[in-house]
Amino acid sequence: MLKKNILVAAIVLGSAFASAHAAAQTTYFGGSVGRAKWNFDCVGSTSCHTAAGTWKLYGGYDFTPNFGVEGSYVYLNEVGASDSTLKATFNGRGADIAGFVKTTPVNNFVGFAKLGIAFMKGEIVASAAGFSGSETHYSGQPLIGLGVQYQIDKKVSVRAEVDNRKVKISGFRDTTFGVTSFTVGVQSEF
Asked: Coil, strand, or helix at residue 135?
């Protein structure tokens, strides 16, 4: 009889622990749009634009209310520079995965930081004197981000963040540019 009572108590406690642990875990997805600023030098160019639109789709899983993992797909729109003889444009796209740390909510605001790896495809297209060519490179580069989200309700949040990644666009002198993005979007838990 004692073994039966211990077994019943263990099942009840185990069920209570499992439901409390499951309640802390959440899965979410979202999308955001914004502006990306590429860090390259325009010295000597007559025309230069280092910032362009960007967008990303992301999803994540919170293991606890404060720790999780997130993956995203990001598209960095075309930027470039030109002078009287040469024109070059750059773009990037890729996926990343990052560890995620969040603060506890304060007046529905939650701060967060992420650190991970961005697997990026960088591309350069150059043309001069009637000739043109392109080069594409794939690389894994560090990713770091900071942001804040406002919880509209328990399932929907508005999110703003700044993240920085690197994009390798050429094997020539290992040409890699830093790209800082500012995005705003909507996130939903399910």
From this structure: strand
Residue type, 17: F
Scanning the chain, the segments in alpha helix (DSSP H) are 2-24
What residue type is assigned to position 79 of the chain? V
Task: Give the tens place of pLDDT for each residue, 152-174.
Answer: 998 999 999 999 999 988 777 67
Alpha-carbon distance of 93 to 74, in angstroms, equals: 6
pLDDT in tens, 43-93: 888 899 999 999 999 999 999 999 999 999 999 999 999 988 889 898 999
Helix (H) or strand (E) holding 174: none
Q: Cβ neighbours of residue 100 under 8 Å, at least 6 residues apart?
A: 60, 62, 67, 68, 69, 70, 112, 113, 114
Tell me if 112 sits within 8 A of 69, measured CB to CB. Answer: no
Residue 9, helix vs strand vs coil: helix
**HSE-up (13 A, CA, CB side) for residue 165:** 32
Its pTM stands at 0.80
Maximum pairwise Cα distance, the chain: 92
3-class DSSP assignment, residue 20: helix
Nearest to 98 by CA among 155, 136, 140: 140
Q: Mean pLDDT score of the chain, rounded to an integer?
A: 87
